[in-house]
Design a protein that fits this description.
about 450 residues; five-stranded antiparallel beta sheet; elongated
Length: about 450
């Protein structure tokens, strides 16, 4: 005799247990296994037709996006569709409680994988993304478990019973949880769309890099704001309720967060006025390096020794910045040399010009130039000037190469480098005591440069 039909999700386990005594349950089991196997085969066949591409290939971002999406979502979605079709066919002949259980499980698996995939596509894989994925999975599985046990309506009723008033809006814990869930989902979707837009802008030819960054960040900010404004009314929360929080946020920005706001605005100013670009060689204070990244709050400078400095954007806007590659990447170098007074300065100047002209990184135009700068205490001071077009590669290589070659050629030509010499002359008269020879008294001794 068939047991009376019991309504409600809480009786699902009892229905499945009773259904196991029916030999026809093998049809449900076979259909479920067949649907899972077919879903796995569909995913494998689809992924096989999408070639694997490396993450370091910017031109294949769209293919990589599609391949990752198929690997994450195709199996649960295809298996879910097949289970729904099988359930609609078998329900004409028998009770399909086992397939009824498989539908929410596959749906929750698809939701978990979608959230994980969307988060990774939107924000990459930061350290906190793993915690967010685990939290989302735990929440979804908990909701599914409450639904299967039949406790979900009671939990919702208890949460809805706890209410409070905020301004003119009456809220409950259930409404707040709904709002938080909708905000989270819409923000994740907004970040996903922003990531796709950023990748599309990255492939746009002829678009200035700074303009790409500005458009990508403005699009991300606008999408997140729109996501919040759209999600809250969907669960019945009036946006005017947020006026209290908006006022508090404005006060916080005015007092405690003004530096953050200044850096945020300064970041957009730097990108819009194009005074700094990715790859620019700049100097500010004691810091000199290549601009590697311009974020919302700071700019990253990488020095020639590999050390990266984080400079707040407000400092770059309000301070004097030496940009060596703003309009022209060519910079000049000056090297000083000193030869002895018995050397030929004209020959030395010719050697300096020859050595500079043979260097690989020294430009031919403007041509190197050499000058007799001054007459020093110990020798003749010469100055060599030359231009290079790649200051970001450093200058020590050029300086060392020129110095080494000048030393070799000066030595071969007999041009000597002077060094400080001191000659002590004793004036005619009585010889002073040894300890008095080094006293600073002009009446007893005179020291001249030799």
């Amino acid at each position: 005799m068939e047991k009376p039909f019991v309504t409600g999700a809480g009786a699902l386990w009892a229905r499945i247990a009773d259904n196991l005594d029916d030999p026809r349950v093998m049809w449900q089991t076979g259909a479920l296994v067949l649907c899972l196997v077919c879903g796995w085969l569909i995913q494998r066949a689809a992924v096989r037709h999408v070639p694997r591409v490396g993450d370091d290939e910017p031109a294949s971002a769209a293919r990589r996006f599609g391949a990752h999406g198929m690997r994450h979502l195709l199996f649960p979605l295809s298996a879910l569709i097949l289970v729904i079709v099988a359930r609609s066919v078998l329900t004409r002949f028998q009770k399909v409680y086992l397939l009824d259980l498989a539908v929410p499980l596959l749906l929750s698996l698809a939701a978990i994988r979608f959230i994980t995939f969307a988060v990774r596509q939107a924000i990459g894989r930061p350290a906190w993304s793993a915690g967010l994925e685990k939290f989302s999975a735990a929440v979804i599985w908990s909701v599914v478990a409450l639904h299967l046990l039949g406790w979900l309506p009671e939990v919702i009723a208890d949460l809805d019973a706890v209410s409070f008033t905020l301004g003119a809006q009456k809220l409950s814990l259930w409404m707040v949880l709904q709002g938080a869930t909708m905000v989270l989902l819409t923000v994740v979707i907004a970040l996903w769309v922003a990531g796709m837009l950023e990748r599309w802008l990255g492939r746009a030819a002829g678009l200035d890099p700074n303009v790409r960054l500005v458009l990508a960040r403005m699009a991300r900010s606008v999408l997140v704001i729109v996501a919040v404004l759209v999600s809250l009314p969907m669960v019945g929360i009036n946006l005017t309720t947020l006026s209290v929080f908006g006022g508090a946020l404005g006060v916080g920005l005015g007092f405690g967060l003004q530096k953050i706001a200044a850096n945020y605005v300064s970041g957009f100013i730097l990108l819009l006025d194009r005074s700094l670009r990715i790859g620019s060689l700049i100097s500010i204070g004691n810091e000199r390096g290549i601009v590697k990244e311009i974020t919302t709050r700071y700019t990253v400078l990488r020095a020639s020794n590999g050390i990266e400095s984080i400079v707040p954007n407000e400092i770059l806007v309000s301070s004097v910045v030496q940009n060596e590659t703003l309009s022209d990447s060519q910079v000049s170098m000056a090297l000083s040399f000193q030869i002895s007074y018995d050397a030929d300065p004209e020959q030395a100047l010719r050697i300096l010009l020859e050595v500079a002209g043979e260097q690989r990184r020294v430009l031919k135009k403007p041509a190197p130039s050499a000058f007799l700068a001054s007459f020093g205490d110990n020798g003749i001071n010469l100055r060599l000037g030359c231009w290079i077009a790649d200051p970001g590669e450093g200058t020590m290589e050029i300086v060392s190469g020129i110095n080494m070659e000048v030393w070799r050629r000066f030595r071969a030509a007999g041009i000597g480098f002077p060094f400080p010499q001191r000659e002590i002359r004793i004036l005619p008269g009585e010889a002073p005591a040894p300890e008095a020879m080094f006293r600073n008294t002009e009446a007893t001794a005179r020291i001249t440069a030799g």
